Amino acid sequence: xxEFICYPKCTTCKKAQKWLDENHIEYVLRDIKTENxxxxxxxxxxxRSGQPLKKFFNTSGLLYKSMELKNKLPDxxxxxxLSLLSSDGMLVKRPxxxxxxxxxxxxxxxxxxxxxx
Length: 117
Hints:
alpha+beta; 6 helices; globular
């Protein structure tokens, strides 16, 4: 079963959820603000996604900007990044679509279609 991890007020998340529903794709919904991804989950998801860890950061978020992470991330270790991401769901790029064999970060319709349809 797919896990759809989102922030309910996020317009991109709403768009992604609508796309899943319209394509009759079953998923379990998880609110990233109330159920933040753990250090271990993020570590596994990074491997499954095939993406660098910095792709998991919500670079347009207020928290990311207020913490000036753009300047700090290049000097951080993977462990430090995972700790930071697992400290607050609002730092994590969303939506995330988690399957047993892949993880999609953010909503790109073409990419989601390729994996799911």
